Amino acid sequence: MDLQAVVDDIVRDLQPRLGEGKVADYIPELARVDPKQFGLAITTVDGTTYTAGDADTSFSIQSISKVFMLTLALGKAGESVWKRVGREPSGSSFNSIVQLEHEHGIPRNPFINAGAIVITDMVLAGHKPREAIGEFLRFMRFIADDDSVTIDEKVARSEQETGFRNFALANFMRGFGNLQHPVEHTLGVYFHQCALAMSCVQLSHAGLYLANRGTNPLTGFSVVSPKRARRINALMLTCGHYDGSGDFAYHVGLPGKSGVGGGILAIAPGKASIAVWSPGLNKVGNSALGSVALEMLATRTGWSVFGT
Amino acid sequence: MDLQAVVDDIVRDLQPRLGEGKVADYIPELARVDPKQFGLAITTVDGTTYTAGDADTSFSIQSISKVFMLTLALGKAGESVWKRVGREPSGSSFNSIVQLEHEHGIPRNPFINAGAIVITDMVLAGHKPREAIGEFLRFMRFIADDDSVTIDEKVARSEQETGFRNFALANFMRGFGNLQHPVEHTLGVYFHQCALAMSCVQLSHAGLYLANRGTNPLTGFSVVSPKRARRINALMLTCGHYDGSGDFAYHVGLPGKSGVGGGILAIAPGKASIAVWSPGLNKVGNSALGSVALEMLATRTGWSVFGT
Amino acid sequence: MDLQAVVDDIVRDLQPRLGEGKVADYIPELARVDPKQFGLAITTVDGTTYTAGDADTSFSIQSISKVFMLTLALGKAGESVWKRVGREPSGSSFNSIVQLEHEHGIPRNPFINAGAIVITDMVLAGHKPREAIGEFLRFMRFIADDDSVTIDEKVARSEQETGFRNFALANFMRGFGNLQHPVEHTLGVYFHQCALAMSCVQLSHAGLYLANRGTNPLTGFSVVSPKRARRINALMLTCGHYDGSGDFAYHVGLPGKSGVGGGILAIAPGKASIAVWSPGLNKVGNSALGSVALEMLATRTGWSVFGT
Amino acid sequence: MDLQAVVDDIVRDLQPRLGEGKVADYIPELARVDPKQFGLAITTVDGTTYTAGDADTSFSIQSISKVFMLTLALGKAGESVWKRVGREPSGSSFNSIVQLEHEHGIPRNPFINAGAIVITDMVLAGHKPREAIGEFLRFMRFIADDDSVTIDEKVARSEQETGFRNFALANFMRGFGNLQHPVEHTLGVYFHQCALAMSCVQLSHAGLYLANRGTNPLTGFSVVSPKRARRINALMLTCGHYDGSGDFAYHVGLPGKSGVGGGILAIAPGKASIAVWSPGLNKVGNSALGSVALEMLATRTGWSVFGT
C-alpha cells in the first residue's frame, strides 16, 4: 500500500470542501483561526511519516491532551486512578454537569471535561501548578521527540477568562471531595495543558507509543506497558468523541480523540499513529473534515480494528 | 498457539469460582437455572471449534439475540434503520426510560431494550407476529448451520407476563410514533426472539460471520457485507454491555454482547467467534465468570482489537 | 360585593378574546370542541350560584376529576394513600416518566397522570372496573347534587385508543409493584373518570365541600372532615396546575385544578367554589381565558388566600 | 383566642422532644450550635408580640433571608425579575444543578440557592459588594425596626470557604450569561446576606409587612404594595421549603420559608407573622421541631389559608 498516495488523494479529494463546519467560538482565541486549513500526518510503527496539506502548522490540540494527561496520571497513580473517575461513555455532552450530580461527583470517564479536571488534579499531586505544567510540557516534548512543542499562553488565558463551565464543574467536584487542590490551581494546570500547540506531524509522533505496544519507535523509549497502551486505546474508542463516540467507531473504527481546535488523533494498533486537523467542527464538536478524512483513510487502508 | 489448551486452562482455572455472581431473577424461568454451569466455545475463521465445560448445554441467549435482530433489520431497511434508533452508548441501564423522554422516543442504540424493541418493529414490518418469529428462527438456524435451534416458549411466556417495563418502553415509544405496529404484536415478537435457546457451540457458529468479513465459513454463505460486519462489531464494542461497555472494552478489548441468561458472544475480527456462558451475573448484569474468562482469553491469545 | 356584577363584567371583558389559546388535540374527541365558548359559575357557601356565559354547557372535566378521585381514595385508604404517592410539586410536565424512574415508581403527587393512575388503582381496590366506574359516577352525582352528570363514552374510548403514554406510565409503575390490578383494569377506570362531562354550574356545586369545611351546604351532607378539606386544598394549590402551579398561585392565589378540556375548578376557602371553562389552552396546558378570568375574579373579590 | 397560652402550650409540649433532628454540619460555624434550643415569637398585625422559649436568642437565619432579598430585588427591578428566575417549585433539592443545565441557566425560583444567587446579582446591580451588603443590612434593620440586627462575619467566612456548590452554581449560571457581576462579588454578597443573625422576635417583626398588606404596622411604613405582599406569600407557599414545600402546605397551610440554621418564618395573611427556631433539621432540611410547632399552631389558631 502506497500511504503517500493515500494521504495525497485524501487531501486532494477534500480540497473543494475546505471550510466546512463551524470553528469553535466559545474560546475567543480559537475563533480567529482560518477555517480553510487542513493537515494530515501518518507515522507508521516503523518510524516513517507521511504528510499532506498543512501538516506542519501548529494548532491548539485542546482535548486531545486528555489522552496524554491520562497517561501521566496512570504513571503516577496506576489503576487507583479509577477510584476517582469512571471508564464508561457518558451519554452526554463534553461539559455536562448533570451526570456529576447523579453520580456524586465521580465523572464518567477521563475524556470529558470533568474527568480530565480530576485527572489534572492527580497529576498536580501536591506540586505547584507551575511545576505540573512544566512536567506535562517536558512529557509532551519527550514523547513527540521534539523540543519545539510549546503552550500557547494566549489560549490558556483566554480559556481561564471564559471557562465558567469548567469552574462550575471543578467547584462541584470539590464540593464532593473529588478535587484535592484549590480549584484555581487545578484549573490553572488544566487550562494550560489544553492550550498545547502542536502540528499534525508532532502529534502523530506523540501518539505513536499507543500504536506500538507502549514504546515510541522513534526513540526506543518505553512510555507505558503494552497492556496499558491497549487500555488507553479502548478508552479512546468508547469515550474519545464525547457523544459522537459511537458514530466515530461506526464510521472510522479506530481509537481516537478529538479536540475543539479541530484536531483528531487516531491510533491503528500495530500499524500507525494518525493526526488530522481542520478547524471546522460538526454538530457534536468534532472536526468535520477530519472525521471524513479518517473514514476515507480507514476504508483505503483496511485499518479498522473491527475487521478488514 | 494451542487454542484447545487455552480453553482447557480457562475452564480449569475458573473451576473453584463456579457459582459466583447472581442468577437473573426478574424472569421466573431464568431464576431456576443451576448457577454452577460454565461453557466455552471458540470457532475460528477456518471453521474449527474448540470447546470446554458445558459448551453443548442450551441456555437462553436473551439480549445476545439483539445482534442478530439488528442484522436482520439492516438487511431489510439498510441504513434507514438509524432514523429510528441511535448509535451511541446510553450511559444508563438496559431498561432506562429517562433517555427516551429526553430524546423524543428515539432509543440511543439497538442493544438496549428500547432500541431492540424498535428494531423488532422494523423486522415485523407489516407481517404477522408469528411470521416474523418464524423468519427470525429460520435466520438463526441458517447462520448457526443447525436446525435444532429453538425458542423456549416457557421463557417467552414468562417474559410476556412479567415484562411490565418493556410494555412501558414500547407504549412510550408508540406515543412518540416510533412503533408502527400494535404494542402487543411488537412485544410478542420481542419476547420470543429473546427466548432463543442455544449452546455455546451453536452461538459461536452463529456469530462467525461477524469475525469473517460477513461470510459464514462453515457454509460459505454471505450474511452481510464486510463493511456491515465491521459496523456491527463497532456497535457491539461501544454499546454491547449496557453501562458496562467501557469496562468490557478496557478489560477484554473485543466486540461483545451479553445477555441476562449469562451468555456472552465475543468477536475477534479476522480470527474467531467466541461464546461463553455462566449464569451468575455481576453488578452491571453481565456474566461474572464469562467476563473473567474472556479477559483471560484475550490476554492469552493477544486478540484484543486494541493491540497485542 | 355584587358577585353577579363581577361575573358579568368578567364575561363581558373577555368577549373580544374568545378563541385565544389552543384546543387540546391529543385526544381526537376534544379537538372538535368549538373554541369560542366561555362559562363561569360561582357558588358561595350559602348556596347561591352566580353564572355567566356558557355556564350550563357540559364539557369534559378531564384532570379536574383527579381531585374527586383523591377524595374517594382518602375515604377508602386514609392517610396510607401517601405510601404510594407523594405530596410534592413535580417540577415537570403532567405526563413525565423521568421522575418515576428516579423515584422508584412512586409518583410525586396525585394530580399528575402517574399519581392519578395510582389513586385510581386504590379506588379500584379489588372491584371490577365497571363497579369502580359506577361508584365514582354515583359519588359525583352525590356531591354535585345532580343525577344528570354522566360519563362521555366517546371521550373515554378516544383516550383508551390513543393513551399510549398513560399505558407506559401504568406499566412502568406496575413493574415497580405500585399497581395492584391489571394495567387494563386500572386504566379502564382511569379513562372513564377523566371523561366525566359536567357544566360549570355542576362543577361549582361538586367542589363546594372544599370551600365549606368538608360539608356540601346544598345538601347538608359531610363529604370529608374540615382537616381533610384543608389538606386537599393545599395539594391543589401546590400541585394543581402541573408545571404552572407556581404561576397560578402567584397570579390567582386560590387552590385550583385544571383539565385539558379547558375547565378549572378553584376554591376560595370559607367563601365559594368557582368553575370556569374555555377550551383554548395556554403553553402549560391550562385554560388560557380561564386563568385570566380567575385572576380578574381574585382581584375583584380579594379572595386570594395570600391576603387582601 | 389567648395567643400567649397557645405559645406557652406549644413550648411546654415540645420540651421533651428538644434536640430532635440533626444540626446542619456542612457549614462548620453552624455545627457548633446547642441543639436543645427552641424559640417562638408571634407578632400580630395589631403589633403585639407573643413569645416563648428562646425567642430572644440570635441565630443564623440563612435561607430565610431569600424572602427579604427577593423583596429588595422586586423593589429595584419590578416584574422584570422574572426574566432571569422562574416561579415554579423545583422538584429537587436546594442546591441541585441538574435543573439549571436542562433549563439553560434559569433557576426555577428565587428560594433555591441558584435563584437566590441570581436575585443577589440583581440587588448588587453595579454596586460594590460592600455597598450591597450595607444596603441589605439597613433594609433588614428598617423592616425589623431594630438597629441591633447584624451579620455574623464568622458564619459568612465559613460559608465562603466551604461553599463549593454555590461557586459551582454561580459559575454555571455565569456561563449561561445569567450573572452580570464577577462570581466572587455576587457570592460575597450572597454569603453575607445568608449570615444575618436575628432572634425570633426580630424575625417576626421583619416579616410583619407580608401579613399586613405590605405595610409594617410597627412603624407604619409601606414596604411593598398589597399585591406584591400576596405574591411573595404565594411564592413562599409553593417554593419556601425546597422539596418539602408540598408537605409543609399539607400539614401547616401557611406561607413559610425555612433556613438550615433551624429557623422558619411563617405568615398568616391578615393575622400575624410567626418566627420559630430550633436547630435540629428533618430529612428535607427544615427545622424538625419548628415544623411540628407550626402545625400545632395552625391547628390551634385555625390560621391555615386553606380553611378553618
Automatic annotation (TrEMBL), chains A, B, C, D:
Enzyme class (EC, first level): hydrolase
Annotated signal peptide: none
Keywords from the UniProt entry: Acetylation, Hydrolase
Residues binding substrate: S63, N113, E159, N166, Y190, Y242, V260
Classification via InterPro entries: Beta-lactam/transpept-like, Glutaminase
GO biological-process terms attached to the record: glutamate biosynthetic process; L-glutamine catabolic process
E.C. number: 3.5.1.2
GO molecular-function terms, A-Z: glutaminase activity
Catalytically driven reaction(s): L-glutamine + H2O = L-glutamate + NH4(+)
Stated family: Belongs to the glutaminase family.
Subunit structure: Homotetramer.
Protein name: Glutaminase
Gene that specifies this protein: glsA
